Amino acid sequence: MKSLKDNISVRMNELGTENAFVVLKEVNELIAKGKKIMNFCIGQPDFKTPKHICDAAKQAIDDGLHGYTPSAGIPELRKAAAQFFSQTRKIEYRPEDVVVACGGKPFIWYTIFATTDPGKQHEVIFPNPGFPIYQSMIKGLGAVPVPLYLKEEKNFNFNIEELRAKITPNTRLLILNSPHNPTGGVLSIKELEQIAQICIDNDIWVYSDEVYSKLVYDAPFASIACVEGMKDRTVVVDCASKTYAMTGWRIGYMANSMLADHITRLVTNSDSCAPYPNQMAVREALTGSQAEVNEMVRIFRERRDIIVPGLNKIRGITCKRPGGAFYVWPNVTEACQITGCKDSEEFRKRLLYDAGVACLADIHFGPRVPGEGQHIRFSYASSAEDIQEGLARIEKFMKM
User: Fold this and answer.
1) Are strands 376-379 and 360-361 parallel, antiparallel or unpaired?
2) How far apart are CA 78 and CA 193, in angstroms?
């Protein structure tokens, strides 16, 4: 006899997840047992949301701003986000080009939903390794995921000719992420111009995930939207989560004049609108003092410059210096051999249970890139003291 479990859809059973939260569950279980874990697995700033932003939310609550807002977002925030995009992307956006949602993540599925049709073999090219929700939402919405491999020798960028070779008549969307999760790689303006020409020549959309746009350390941030001919075909997405230490506030914003109305209808059909007080807080974040943000960026840069050389001093580990975000993607192929681990996932578990250091393995960000060896990801959104302690534990583990 069939049960209700047999009536769960295939797409639901096949839908992926974000493994950072799976590993975080393991970490919390060990902490509950009294073990001290140095946690580098979750991409969450360890700073508090700046006080003036919190005060704006409190004021909104006191002012009775508790109800629904327009699905596209309150006018004050759309205006602030348009100004933010215009200043940082160096092209002009209007408030009506902007849509606000509950974080940056919903725009992934909104954009795939708006640009592909199920059952028509429409293809979406995405970076691998990459944010795992890209692939899960492509599959979940009935499109075809096409991985574009990032190579260590190219500082975790892809070969431009490989991108060109991936394009077919069914290609509808290219997903870019710069600065990149999980590698911290940053695309240069020259690279973006080459990518843009391919997109223009083949008439495809671009989803540009720029949620780490403020977290760049060695060169100015550049968006593909600023390349001539790319503004209308690029969905630019940013959010308050990483920049303003507001991960739990769940406010993101996108800009694209051609898709804004369509994506607004998707917001209406899903969340109705983002929470009013939170939108007021993010409006203050974008228009108020940036002093604390600048200080966060300085501290993240300092932490990067601790963890990268620290990892490179450990036997069996090599690590490139990332240009942005707050992640490193060290190669642990030799470390796996030294410790007798069959792969990065076993090495990751050994670090957690034997050394008390939590990180993620490359398989949490898509299938391993052929010929690229084994990698793990550390988030350095932790204190310098915790990073030093974590490095010491790893070094001790590698000498066991």
Assistant:
1) antiparallel
2) 28
